[in-house]
Amino acid sequence: MPCARTSQHKCEMVGRFWSGANCQDATEGSKCHQEVTWAMEHGIYVYPEWYPSLTEQSSFREFQARLFRGQQSGLEHNDCPEPCCHDALPGERCHEDATWAMLYGINIREINHAYPPSLTNESEFAEFQAYLHVCYPDRCPEPCAPTEVGASQHDASMDCPDTHNSR
Questions:
Q1: Where would a tag sit more exposed on the chain, N or C end, judged by fewer CB atoms within 10 A?
Q2: How far is Cα of residue 10 from the mean position of the Cα atoms in its chain?
Q3: How confident is the model at residue 166 (pLDDT cuts 50, 70, 90)?
Q4: Beta-carbon neighbour count of residue 123 at 10 Å?
Q5: Model-level pTM?
Q6: Mapped to the 3 state alphabet, what secondary structure does 106-144 carry?
Q7: 163 with 101: CB under 8 angstroms?
Q8: DSSP assignment, residue 39?
Q9: Using CA atoms, how far apart are residues 135 and 131, in angstroms rounded to an integer?
Q10: How many of the other CB atoms lie within 10 Å of CB of 72?
Q11: Top-confidence range, 7-11, 73-77, 113-117, 129-133
């Protein structure tokens, strides 16, 4: 991803931000929906090497994200736009915040009450990203992988950790 400002993201000293300004989840009946459905029902079995990071249990949005990335890199052509989910990548602010929360924040007595009880040091990265998305949707996108935090949309009255002052 380039560091020059674009309509998709901005680059700052702190880290890149993902912008879902042009995202669109595939709608039933669309060409993308048909391509994702084929990939999930047939492609993963016939051409598993095309989907190295996916399994039969991967979500529809994870498959759409994979098709979008393949098109974006110029390796293939399909009709899938960027889905309105994004798994945070190293160098992005959300990845930095989720990694910090996972390794350190959850262990700081003064703020660990803000994390849902289901989050522990053993939780998956996507669970921390999903929690930060609930707290800071402008800074941290919803991950593509389904998560317990995302499914439960924890109590919105719960305090969210202040990631700026905690470090």
A1: C
A2: 17
A3: very low
A4: 20
A5: 0.71
A6: HHCCCCHHHCCCCCCCCCCHHHHHHHHHHHCCCCCCCCC
A7: yes
A8: I
A9: 6
A10: 12
A11: 129-133
